[in-house]
Design a protein that fits this description.
By secondary structure, the chain is an alpha/beta fold. Helix content is about 30%, strand content about 20%.
Length: about 290
């Protein structure tokens, strides 16, 4: 495997939405992996992935406005606004077979980006991987009231590597605007034209004890693509990926490699009916 060290100091091509991990191998790029973080999250969620991915895969992480190096910018007002901006940014890059990975809210943003990429045929989109999120057609009754105390309690319940940062009262003026803004986007989200289906394969991933996204909610994603879908379940809750980072990145890398091996031209041919297959895999606790 090639070794990379994540570099969050520079945006990709001058675009503030895309953060490219620094590469330390000389193998020509063969694929692009684009990762979308959760509500309140940032591109740094994926910093550990850089050292785990095989050589030849370009890793881009999405940096939403209103946080970290984009702290002075207003938060996005909708999932559609985020998707429009990211799709435009990706369309300006050199063409590479692309896989999108989105965690929690990021799954919905990645789904909307995938829809735009398919509609515009501006890039060779190979696969969508969604994590810890109900499908686009599922109403979100689990979302907390839009006040700081409820949002912080919700974030604590989900856990994650940075959940305790909300306990630092002095930091709340810096971090709460992005959490409020992202949850407002989730509340407003209503996918236009759904259930219009993607034509690319779909991989669904989640934790077996996620308090806000159970197995039925994960399986609802099978309605989002007319191509092959597969479900992978890890031990753990909403941030299962913190404990199983190595295993998850291996799964993602295998999906990227499988997708790159498919040499069909754009657009992909729709499957014959019955055109969907579903495979479920349960990853055991280690």
């Amino acid at each position: 495997m090639g070794v990379r060290v994540a570099n969050y100091g520079a945006s990709t091509g001058g675009n503030s939405w895309l953060r490219r991990s620094e590469r330390h191998d000389e193998e020509p790029l063969r694929a692009r992996l684009v990762c979308f973080p959760h509500a309140g999250g940032a591109a740094g969620l994926f910093h550990g992935w850089a050292r785990l991915l095989p050589s030849g895969i370009e890793l881009l992480s999405i940096q939403y406005p209103g946080r970290q190096n984009r702290l002075s910018e207003p938060c996005a007002e909708s999932v559609d606004d985020m998707a429009d901006a990211v799709a435009a940014a990706l369309s300006s890059l050199p063409a590479l077979p692309a896989t999108l990975f989105g965690h929690s809210m990021g799954a919905l943003v990645a789904f909307e980006v995938a829809r735009r990429m398919e509609q515009r045929q501006t890039a060779v989109l190979k696969r969508l991987i969604v994590s810890a999120s109900p499908g686009p057609g599922i109403g979100r009754q689990d979302l907390p009231p839009q006040d700081d105390a409820a949002l912080i309690e919700y974030a604590r319940r989900l856990g994650g590597p940075f959940a305790d940062i909300y306990d630092v009262v002095e930091l709340r003026p810096l971090i709460m605007p992005s959490l409020r803004g992202d949850f407002q986007c989730l509340r407003r989200y209503s996918p236009v034209g759904y259930p219009s289906m993607l034509r690319i394969p779909l991989t669904i991933v989640g934790g077996d004890s996620d308090p806000v996204c159970g197995l039925d909610a994960l399986r609802s994603w099978t309605q989002a693509s007319e191509a092959e879908t597969e479900l992978h379940v890890f031990p753990g809750g909403h941030f299962y990926l913190d404990s199983y980072e190595t295993e998850l990145v291996q799964l993602v890398a295998d999906a990227v490699d499988t997708s790159c091996a498919d040499q069909h031209s754009w657009p992909p041919e729709p499957p014959r009916r019955p055109g969907t297959t579903r495979r479920e895999s349960w990853h055991r606790e280690t």
